[in-house]
Recover the amino acids of this structure.
DNA sequence: ATTAATCCTATCAATTTAATAGGGATTACA
DNA sequence: TGTAATCCCTATTAAATTGATAGGATTAAT
């Protein structure tokens, strides 16, 4: 399951990408428009800022803005920041590899091989999708 | 993340598929060989039996066996039984569809569209993989 | 009968998730 | 200079999920 955190984060990024004005977007505005609890969204956008995806401006007329053009914001990056590893098992993760304690030899593990295929197919989608694609309207 | 339940279940199914004798396989034997807590595995195999994937024989010399040839056991079915929906959001699930409360129109939801693509690519893998594939040794 | 197995359901502890709380720090601008 | 608006930070909490265990009931072979 996709966490609410990730879902809210993606919606917020889309909202910011669509807001063409170039001005920082207030958390409250996003929260209101997208039906997201504001305080929760604050922590999410903070995470995205710390990850370098968003920038922020404090104080009156402050808010969040994209650090790069939407076409340069890859879903792989966003998902890793918000949802964590893309792989479904750590022993198959490119960025967060970890050995399983219940596997003497992962090259003979049937689950391992299946999960590599799932990971690769998911990666293909996420690598080929950017925030610009998400921000397109309709269909 | 793949749950332990699913991981254990897949390993157990692989073990049974590899055990060519045709005789029912005891839970204890699988648990021992695959380092799975036996009592936990009992409940998992029970689930697989209730789903029609495994059959069982009670009493002495009892155990679990496959109801179909490994090549007929699709990963889509196994995953749905053990892990639940393949889609990452309910509004994109083929078998467990549910509307999101925070989406006025899901056809305009950017997350929705992305998740359809992820679902389809995962489905393609899972539909094309059977227990027979998992049971192949090595690489 | 005895033994060895599955079957069933309840329960528990740990973790994760979703959300809230309560301010602190910074900035615009009157 | 002061005040309102905004992001920043961390802690806490409640609910849900997960992983595992417990304790027998039932069934079948010998």
């Amino acid at each position: 399951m996709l966490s609410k955190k990730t879902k809210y984060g993606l919606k917020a990024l889309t909202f910011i990408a669509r807001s063409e004005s170039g001005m920082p977007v207030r958390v409250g505005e996003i929260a209101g428009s997208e039906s997201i609890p504001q305080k929760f969204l604050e922590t999410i956008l903070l995470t995205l800022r710390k990850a370098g995806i968003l920038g922020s401006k404090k104080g009156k007329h402050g808010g969040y803005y994209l650090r790069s053009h939407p076409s340069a914001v890859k879903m792989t990056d966003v998902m890793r920041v918000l949802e964590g590893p893309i792989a479904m098992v750590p022993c198959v993760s490119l960025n967060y590899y970890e050995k399983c304690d219940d596997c003497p030899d992962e090259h003979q593990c049937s689950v391992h091989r299946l999960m590599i295929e799932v990971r690769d197919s998911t990666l293909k989608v996420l690598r080929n999708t950017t925030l610009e694609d998400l921000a397109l309207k309709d269909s």
Notes: Strands of chain A lie at 54-57, 63-66.
